[in-house]
Amino acid sequence: MDCIFCKIVNKELPAKIVFEDDDLLAFYDLAPKAKIHILVIPKKHIDSVNDLSQSDSELIGRLFLKIKEIAQKLGVDQTGYRVITNTGPDSGQIVHHLHFHLVGGGKLGPIA
Ligand code: AMP
After folding, report:
1. Across the chain, which distance is largest between two alpha carbons, in Å?
2. Within its chain, how far is the Cα of 21 from the centroid?
3. CA 68 to centroid of ligand 1, rounded, Å
4. pLDDT, tens digit, for every residue of 3-52?
């Protein structure tokens, strides 16, 4: 499968990793749109939110708790941050491996 994020998971592509365990990976976005811009992904390939199933409930729950921990570690939990998941063409999703953008480190513009 030709998936950039699977290649990062498999260490075939480099990334600046901030967290890794058996199921989750968090790394800095290559083209940051904010002072802090981290991507948090499940290692397992899931195309998008549309492809989540009941059996992914625990995985996604743990992923969100990890986002909270990373925000604390990077010191934006009190100043604020945004978690974004693009899904499908209208959202501008480019990489079709489920990922959550954690952006912060400064005032963010309105989402819409
Ligand atoms: P999305 O539009 O939600 O699919 O966003 C994909 C994100 O992945 C963009 O913010 C890209 O800058 C980022 N990205 C693409 N390739 C890499 C890479 N090799 N390492 C880190 N981030 C990447």
Report:
1. 39
2. 14
3. 20
4. 999 999 999 999 999 999 999 999 999 999 999 999 999 999 999 999 99
Tokens of residue 31, six digits: 């083209």
Q: What is the model's pTM?
A: 0.97
Are the CB atoms for 71 and 102 separated by under 8 Å?
yes
Ligand 1 proximity of 70 Cβ (cutoff 6 Å): no
Specify the amino acid at residue 71: A
Both tokens of residue 37? 């811009």
Q: How far apart are CA 15 and CA 29, in angstroms?
A: 8
Q: Which two tokens stand for residue 22?
A: 């058996």
Distance from the alpha carbon of residue 90 to the mean position of ligand 1, in angstroms: 17
- What's the CA gap between 45 and 10, in Å, rounded? 12
Listed in sequence order, the residues at least 6 apart from 101 whose beta carbon sits closer than 8 Å to its beta carbon are 29, 33, 37, 38, 39, 82, 83, 84, 85, 86
Establish whether residue 30 lines the binding site of ligand 1, counting it when its CB lies within 6 angstroms of any ligand atom.
Answer: yes
